[in-house]
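Consortium newsletter contribution from the modelling node. Members have asked for a concrete example of what our holo predictions look like. Here is one, prepared for the 1-O-phosphono-alpha-D-glucopyranose complex that several groups have been discussing at recent meetings.
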Amino acid sequence: MSYIEFKGQDGTFSMENPENYTGLYFPIAGEKGLKSCVTPNLGGDSKTDQNHFLLEPVSIENLHNNKSTRNFWCNIEGKGMWSATGVSAVQESDKFTEEQDSSKLEAGFMWQSVSRKSMKFQMKSKITSFVSIEGDAEITMIELENISEKEQNITFYPAVALYGRSADNIRDHRHVTSLLHRTVVKDGIITVKPVLSFDERGHQKNETTYFAGAFDSDGVCAEGYFPTVEEFIGEGGSFLNPKAVRENLPGVKEPYSVEGKESIGAFRFSKKILSPGEKLTYIFTMGALEKGDDVKNVVTKYNTLESAKKELERVKKYWVEKVDIDFHTGDKVNDNYLKWICFQPVLRRIYGCSFLPYHDYGKGGRGWRDLWQDCLALLIMEPMQVRKMIVDNYCGVRFDGTNATIIGNAQGEFIADRNNITRVWMDHAFWPFITTKLYIDQTGDVEILFEKIPYFKDMQISRGTSKDTEWTTDYGNRQRTISGDIYQGSIIEHILLQNLCAFYEVGEHNEMRLRGADWNDALDMAPDKGESVAFTSAYAGNYVEIADLLMHLKEKCGYTKIEVAEEMLVLFDRDVSMYNSVVKKHAILEKYVELCRHNISGNTVIISIDEICDNLREKAEWIMNNIRNNEWICKDETKGWFNGYYDNHGNKVEGYDDNNVRMMLTSQVFSIMSGTATDEQIKSICNSADEYLYDSKAGGYRLNTNFREEKFDLGRMFGFAYGEKENGAVFSHMAVMYGNALYKRGYYKEGHKVLKTLLDAAKNFSTGRMYPGIPEYFDNDGRGMYTYLTGAASWYMLTVINEVFGVKGNYGDMVICPALMPEYFDEKRKAYIALNFAGKKFVVIYTASSDYDIDNIKVKKAVVNETLVEPDNKGVIRITKEMLSNMEDNRENVINIEL
Ligand code: G1P
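And here is the predicted structure:
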């Protein structure tokens, strides 16, 4: 049985009785402003940021505890109360019985529509929810239909409680903050403007107005209002059995105002007589607007059926067009899932990691790592915006190679860390280069490397181990020179500085120190002696790639030298005796961080590209050999893997004994991706991963084996139940990166298995219980957890485009080198991908010829528009920048590839 049915190719899907499954919610948001989520029963919340929640904040467990967030009631004469959202005491008790309403959800990017049919009340409803593109209102269209053979007298009561304050007040001063509420009824709208934003450290005058307006299809407002919860639910009442609806109360008339009460946007419309088959539609709008915004103007923009429908059409078109990538494979369902995966990075740009029910951590914004990885996907869909994003994000790098971790709301806004305990994630410096390199490959814009930008400065110095007591807020958040000027360095300087500082911060085994954690945030209890071999490999990979990039600059673009800050000379040490000496490395790092304690000199030096490349390659080679020699765990002739960590006692974390195998996926991913693992080793790693980590029921490759130890000397992850989240779940992000690394090294059959098992797990609703997309992880029961907001989506999309379909950028050229397995082709042996590249539209059509060989996939013939393009001896097609620029802008360029 298929639970999710797709309609076309743009991801729109439908599902029967979605309320019978736990934890389903759907994102609807604007480009800015409101970020909402809606469950099938219209639960879920809405907010603009942590301090401005229009509806009461919810975490995943609240979704079944309190479903009555947005309720649209009908008092049906002679029958009683029916909730068009399915949430009344009666409907709750009818659930799972024959009396249950039947319902059907239909949804697409940023809109949801739920139809409901009640045999008991002889009513049907269709409720469509979305947020305007500007994010100034969440709009709901409620259609009611009389399906009985007789007339029905109906009074409509929309009711949505307006929380109107900070998420912090959900428990902290919940009642006191309601005393701040000033609620007014005017022009058919209920507004709440709290007097203060409550904060015991210093209350702020509040400027935000929360509002709700309800209208019939012609924009005519209600005749009665219930602006407070107590008036609406009545003494002893509840949201499942509100007195106002039960007793058909008239409510108050406008104008009206009330102070110091929990507010609600509850309305009473005049009684309507619905003949058999007759329909009625109402529009409900709500939002949170800052000073100067005019609530009435916003509400009247959307308050008729016509204007609401118009906005809905705009919304549908806008978000579908955002994902300007199309896949056509032999499987329509997969194509639609891929659409959703491509949309997920857009969702994370909007929601961060804090604003959907599973994602209740933090107070908004994204982490440093997420910032960079989300750019990966966005730069394929929105390349122009991403250039600026990359440049702005580098402004968060400190001169000691660490970075700001408190990220502001605006792009490029980083906030000073005043904590006494700072956390340094040792992987942070790894990601910016990966993103920048992809950007350069897609666009050929090497000039970005020479863009000059400042460094971040706050109190934290010496890689988070000391404080700059001279630093004050007046100094500001930009690194200055001794003459007081803000220092500006190129992006390539930022990259070198970040990557080189990491080289010297090693632990006793000469692998980079784990510090606060690496990619795995939950490896957070080994700050002293912990080491991350996994990311030491990763950095070595960066050194090689940076050297390749610099060589390209020299050979193809005529650059011979790079200008860097004088202090950085220390980091280019090449003394051979330093490599094996932890002490010498520490001394170098010590010397460097001492030079940039407060101000830097402002002087620069010029280093030849040849010297930098040799330097980086030497460092990479030393690291890779060191890891190959000291961290390889050879279980038997066919199995082996890399140890990726040392714990806080300085002991190797991975290995095996008679009772237990300890293996972690992350360690393998970066050794493969960076080139540290040899081909022989990759084979052994794959065998071991298949034997110890692969679990088809759980959705693929687990993050680690069961250590059966609480391991307080490594991280909180060992406190999680095994098979959950970072402790051995099938964690999509690392699984996808495993797939990506395998494809990159030419192991595409193995890579394909990784991608396929993940997608199959997500598609299998009977265990996954999730709407289309890829989740952060699958739990022990195979349930998709933490849906929508995961870095896995960016990497999945990238792997499918760059590796599976094999369309990638190479310094602005388009290179095509596919690794399509047979199931990607349709019955006519064709598959295609449509995407934009270099500002032009492309559709790349692949045909599997009769002698198509999956052991040796090669392009046999390529025709670009009408021109034949010869593959090179490896079967790779290259369309140069020049050829690309000669293509017309407004046509669809067709590339036919025969395999
Ligand atoms: C999340 C975080 C990511 C972190 C990962 C592992 O993954 O967002 O930064 O590296 O957990 O701790 P995500 O939800 O992006 O898949």
